[in-house]
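Consider the following input, taken from an annotated entry for NAD(P)-binding domain-containing protein (Phycomyces blakesleeanus).
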Amino acid sequence: MASKTAIVLGGTGAVGKALVRDLLVNGSYEKVVAIGRRPVELDSNVPQEKLVQKSVDFDNLDKYRQAFNNASDVYCCLGTTRAAAGTAENFVKIDQTYVLNSAKIIAEQNPPKDNEKLSPVHFLYCSSRGSNKDSVFLYPRSKGQTEEGLKQTGFQKVSLFHPGILIVEEPRPERRLAEAVVVNLVPSFSRFFGLSWYAPVGSVGSAMRKVGEGYNVPESKTKVFEPTGTKVNEFSNVDIDLISPHD
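Applying the prediction step yields:
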């Protein structure tokens, strides 16, 4: 791993920031490149000598192609909510179009080697429980369609993470009443009934990093997307907890 480079998309979000922190504290990458609309703000106690921050305009990604060069593993936590996006159209643009446009450029900037047909990049995407490309609801439909698009992009490997209700580590810029209720009630309720309903963002980030670095994924979890030959792994909330247990 010493010569590998990790790229993180969406590093300023709840999961993305936890992931960047985990990569810098526990990861074994030579370089961690955070690509986003603004820099990731980290505490001074987080080692940052391996961190490279690059600001881009996701509406004009062709201008920033060089930022995506030499990627080994790409961790994507780009996403938003319908309320934060303002409109359904804007939500899809941020949640889906930005992800797929980034993936397309990454595959092109990191082309197949030798006689291989697929980009050697391992693309790891934080999706959501219940993602479904055919759903009548906007959020799960967008996530499901994004997953389908990633399978078709042309990577050797795509890993899809489906966490449950996210428990944040830091207050969000915008206050969310429902989220406050979740943070206070769901973990206790879930533990009492032995359910797997929630996932701390730190556990999600840690699980993504471990899979990217070579966590031993059972063969039964790997499927081949036949149109491209891409190997696809999917991780449920239970899987995430097994990889990176939380209290």
